[in-house]
Structures are given as structure tokens and as C-alpha cells.
Amino acid sequence: MVPAWLWLLCLSVPQALPEAQLAERYVEVPENYGGNFPLYLTKLLLPREEAEGHIVLSGNSGIAAEGLFAVDPESGFLLVTRALDREEQAEYRLQVTLETEEGRVLWGPQLVLVHVKDENDQASGHQATAIVDVSVVESTWLPLDPVHLAENLKVPYPHQIAQVHWSGGNVHYHLESQPPGPFDVDAEGKLYVTRELDREAQAEYLLLVWAQNTRGEDYTEALQLQVVVMDENDNAPLCPSPGASINIPELSSPGTEVTRLLAEDLDAPGSPNSHVVYRLLSPEPEEGTEGSSFELDSTSGSVTLGPRPLHAGQNFLIQVLAVDLGGAEGGLSSTCEVAVTITDINDHAPEFITSQIEPISLPEDSKPGTLVATLMATDADLEPAFRLMDFAIEAGNMDGTFGLDWEPDSGHVQLRLLRNLSYEAAPSHKLVVVVRSVAELVGPNPGPGATATVTLLVERVVPPPKLDQESYEASVPVSTPAGSLLLTIQPSDPMSGPLRFSLVNDSEGWLCIKEVSGEVHTARPLQGARPGDRYTVLVEAQDAGEPTLNTSATLVIHFLKAPSAPTLTPVPSRHLCTPRQNHGVVVSGPSEDPDQTNGDSPYSFALGPNPTVQRDWRLQALNGSHAYLTLALHWVEPGEHVIPVVVSRNGRMWQLQVRVIVCRCNMERQCMRKVGRMKGMPTKLSAVGILVGTLTAIGIFLILIFTHLTLARKKDLDQPVDSVPLKAAI
Q1: Which terminus of the chain faces fewer neighbouring Cβ atoms within 10 Å, N or C?
Q2: How far apart are CA 605 and CA 619, in angstroms?
């Protein structure tokens, strides 16, 4: 049987160069191969750097699913797993690709045509015999020891570093570098480095060398040669990229870490070439001062605060020298810079510029919103957020009479009036305004300057009296009798002080006004007044407590035609129960009105102007002709009451006198009247006298009897014994 490797050497088609690797390959395989399986057919030039992909093999007749062919992912060889039969299938057309998990093609497709070579496996009556000579020689394809090369080596290039040898003939060598590097191999197997190496770019290389035949097929596995690049101190320490300025709050304690410089040296880690130490260049301590603002740990590169205090707003540029070789002579160095800003903290409490405000006078009639005073406060902090202030009235504003108004970013606060002042309630006010920082305060508590005292003196203002109307009008018939109530003048504020009323320029003397109540009546009959005329007088009102304060209003009387006298419906006496119950008296208007043309015009009912009547009674309209009179109070003194009711209609007025008897009632709402003494019957006093006299006489009679018995017994006891006669025995 012919060896398998000999079949492969004889039957394989020369492989294409890498730049033509996608050209279709042709492979012949003898049918009914009797050697070991799998049988390697040809090597595919799969890219070694695409390790993340997977190999996909496809072809005709479903051969990929049957597992007849496969690709070794380690070596890249296309292999067949069992013997082929040309009479079953003479050719196989395969396609190989390298794809990602998402199906993206990384390499390929590589087309491979596998031809099954016919063998004389069918009986034909002919036989042939062949003799093959096989010789065994010693293998020189031996592993190589690692090679150490100094970086930046100053020698002529290419520079030989090793040599390999294949003991057989007809061989050429192929070299690959992982990762790719400046290496090459010649026809004699000498390995060269073609230029200077840089350890920082690549510290190690793995060289793979194959011995191949003229068709590019490997005789055996590749030899591996490890190339180690020796380090030289050719890299200065690299400072971190300068970032934004580092903010350190003021009042930070000494020893607080500002930053930690980690200079990177690209030379070999752990070697003296990458051993970096640090030196502080600036800021240097000022002359005449003790301690420095910053301190540096030469080993770790940690920059910390020194004992010298720092203040908000200061800016520093810290310069640090980073030296390799542990700071020894000949070491490379770099200067690192770090910007540091001392930031503000809220360590200053706001204070008023003036803590005592001189007394301020303000009239008590000042309107709400009036500016009382403007206070100014300052804050020594620099940060705008720490200068925001909050104001409040801490004392003297229990009733909320005052308020504060300020802008959030302003140090001015306005004290304003929110409610009316009252001299009688408080002739003066002493307000304490406090200012606080909106942000949380760090450091000492606020001092005495955080409060301001404002003293306000209230000036007493007595306003003139004001009536409920600026002018008054009343319409009365010319036949209105004397004493008729026309209207009532009242102050606009019922809670104001009492007023004294009087009439001015009442030339006819027709009117009079009650000084206290303000009721305007007709003083006499309106003789001489004609319908359609107007009569104007002036009503003057003075403050009872301050006569100098007064006001006036005009009163215009319109005279109407005297109405025809209507027939008033007499109101019979009725009784109402006290305590009040749910019933009353129905009052009707005049039964006849000969001058009334519109019979549908309603009547108006009102109680007379007597305050007691208006307090004790209530009158409600039922309809246009009747009203309902009831008790207004729960209790009214029992007795007969006459209630004046004023009835008006179309400018005419009538007055009804309604008699009502108020009494206690029983359960049936029947009036229980007081009963007088009956004739011939004793009164209560006489009955009591008779009873007392009788009892006194009986008592005297009993006293006499007991006295008599007591004296008789005493007389018997005083007689001698022998003077008592013996009783004769019978």
C-alpha cells in the first residue's frame, strides 16, 4: 500500500499564494483509501487573527451534514473522514467560509473541488507489481531555545538570530510571526530580524517556521521560536493628562489628600527603568513663613495639604518632577502639573449693616403694603449660593401686622405693613428681624449682627365720621301728619363711635331729627307744601367724642299728592305663646283704596321704627296683601302689646296698630290667664291667719291644762302622812 503522505504529495495541486487565496482549489483523492483517517487533503490559508469566527463548510449533495469532509480549526487543513468511492460519486464541490455568530463573513468563500481518482478496484484480468524503496534518516527538525534581543539594538540589519534545518531534500522554509514582526527566513533556514525592536511596542514574539515542499505543503508541524525583547531605559515617565482644576474646600484639615500623581513609565514593569519617584518643585514655601501649603510623598506621589492655612479664591499650580531609575543619576524625568483651586464654604453668617434702626413714625391709617423700613445685610462668603439669605421677623409680630419682602439674591429686605395699625391696640411696635443663610452654615454660629431691631411708633389718626349714604331722598305725601318717620340716618360702620345728628337750613321747620338715633320725623303738618315740590335740608353728624370731627349729607324731600284715606282693616286681638312657639298673627293691608288704579300692585309691610319693637318682633310678607307677625325672641314678657306696622304702596304709607296678647300657654296652646280673687272666699293671707290663730289658741289651752295638773300634784306632795284619811275596808 502506498503511504498516505506520498499520495498527498503526488495528488495535491500547488496551492495559490496568499494574495490569490480565494481562487478555486483542486484536490485529487484516491478512492478506497486504506490508510488512517482522517485524511488531510490540503491546507487552507485561514487568517490567524480572526479567532473569534467559526468555520462553515458547505457543498453539494448534503455532504456537510453527513460529516464526510471537515476543516481542522487549529491547522487549517481540509480533511476527509472516511474512504471515498468514485463509482458512488466522482466529484465533490466544497465551499469554506469564516463567519461570526451573526453570520457576517470574515474570510472566504474558498471553493475546493475534490476529485475522486479512479483505482483499479474492479477485476479486469490484469495485475501489476511495484517496488518502493524507503530510507530512514535522522531528524534535524528540533525545537529552538528562546532568543533574547535588546531593544533599539544598533547592529547592521538584517541580523541573524537563529537557524533551522530540514533533513530531507527539496525543501523551502516558511515563517510567520505572532504578532507580525520584522522577521524573515532564507532558503538555508537562517532566521533574521530586519530592523530595531521596541519593547514598549511589543515585548515578545512567537515565530513559527514550516518546512514545505515545492507545492507549499508542510512536511511536519512548525517549529516555534520565542523572541524576547530586552528592556532599555528609553522612556521618560508620562504624567497624567492635565484635567480640570482640583477643588479643595477652604478650612480643610492638614493632611487632606489633594491628588495622587501616578506617572506611567512604559519601560519593563518592576525594573529600575520603570521605578518612578517624585519631587515637589512648586509652590515653594515663602520666606519668613513656617510650613508649606502642600506636601508630597516621593514614593506614592500623593499630594496633601500642609500646615499653612488656605483661603477661598486662591489658585495654585503644583509642579512635580517624576524621575525613573528610582531617582538615580541618568534617570529620565518629566514635570507634572496639577491646578488646585481653594473653593468657598459657607463659613460666614450674614449680618445686618445696621442692627438698630431709629424709631420710625407711621400714621395708624397707613394702608397695607406701606413700606416701613429697608434693611441691608452682607455675607463675606464668595460663592453666590452661600450668599443667598433668608429673612424672618423673630419677635414683635404675633398678629402678623408686618411682613418682609426681598429678592433671593439680594441683601436688601423691605419691612412692609400687611394689616391696619391701631393706636388703641398698640401705640408702638418693636420688631426683631433675623437674617440666616439659605445654605447650611459651616463653622461658628451667627453673631449678634444677625438680628436688627426696628422700633415703630403709631401716630393716632381719628377719621371723620362717615354716613352710610352721601345723600338721602324721601317721598312723602303732603298730608303726612306730624311725627311721621321719614327715614333714619346711620353711620357707615355700625361699630364706630356714637354720632350726634342735627339739621341745617330747615327753613320751614317741617322736619326734626333725633340727636342720637338719627331718625328724621315730620315736626309739624306740611302746610304750604305742594305736590311735586322738593325740599332740601342738610344733615350734619358730629363725633360724640371728638366734636371737631363731623360730616354732612343732603336730604331731599319729594312731596306727593295726598292719597285718599283708605279703610284700614281692624286687626283683632290675638294671643301668642311665650316661650315662642311656631305660630303668629296674620296682618292685612287696607281693605279699600279708591285712588289705586292698579289693584295688583303689592303692599309692603314693615315694623315701626321703635328699636324695642324691632328687637322683640319679626314681620314677614306672606303675599302682596298680607304679612305674618311672630315673636323674634324666645321669651317676651307676658301682657298686652301694641305693635305699630307701617304699610306702604305706590309711595303711600299707612300705620296699623296691631294688638297682641302674649301669655303662657298650655299643651293645647291655650292661653293661661292670671285669675283674680273670688267674692266671699278668703284670700291666701286670711286663710293663713285663721290657721295660725287656731293653732295658737289650741296651744294656749293645752298649756293651761298642763299647768293646772302640775300645781295639783305639788299640793298633794306637801301634806303630812298622818293627815291622809284611811280608806275604810269594805
Answers
A1: C
A2: 8
pLDDT in tens, 17-35: 334 446 788 888 888 877 6
Per DSSP, 567 falls in state B
pLDDT band at 451 (very low <50, low <70, confident <90, very high): confident
pTM, to two decimals: 0.39
CA 82 to chain centre: 77
Q: Is 585 helix (H, G, I), strand (E, B) or coil?
A: strand
Q: What is the pLDDT of residue 676?
A: 54
Instruction: Please give the single-letter amino acid code of residue 351.
Output: E
**Integer Cα distance of 111 and 95 in angstroms:** 5
Q: Which three cell numbers stand for residue 29?
A: 483523492
DSSP 247: E
Amino acid letter, 586: V
Q: How far apart are CA 630 and CA 561, in angstroms?
A: 34
Nearest CA among 535, 511, 509, 508 for reference residue 521:
511
Inter-CA distances, 282 with 177, 236, 306, 313, 620, Å = 49, 21, 13, 19, 101
Mean per-residue pLDDT, 157-180:
90
Summarize the confidence of residues 164-180 as an average pLDDT.
89
- Report long-range pairs for 653-659 (Cβ below 8 Å, ≥24 apart): 653/477, 653/480, 653/484, 654/566, 654/568, 654/589, 654/590, 655/608, 656/568, 656/569, 656/571, 656/587, 657/571, 658/571, 658/585, 658/587, 658/629, 659/571, 659/572, 659/573, 659/574
What domains lie within the chain, and their CATH numbers? Answer: 25-117 (2.60.40.60), 132-230 (2.60.40.60), 246-343 (2.60.40.60), 351-459 (2.60.40.60), 471-560 (2.60.40.60), 574-589+602-664 (2.60.40.60)
Residue type, 402: F
Q: Give pLDDT, residue 513.
A: 92
| Amino acid 483: pLDDT | 78
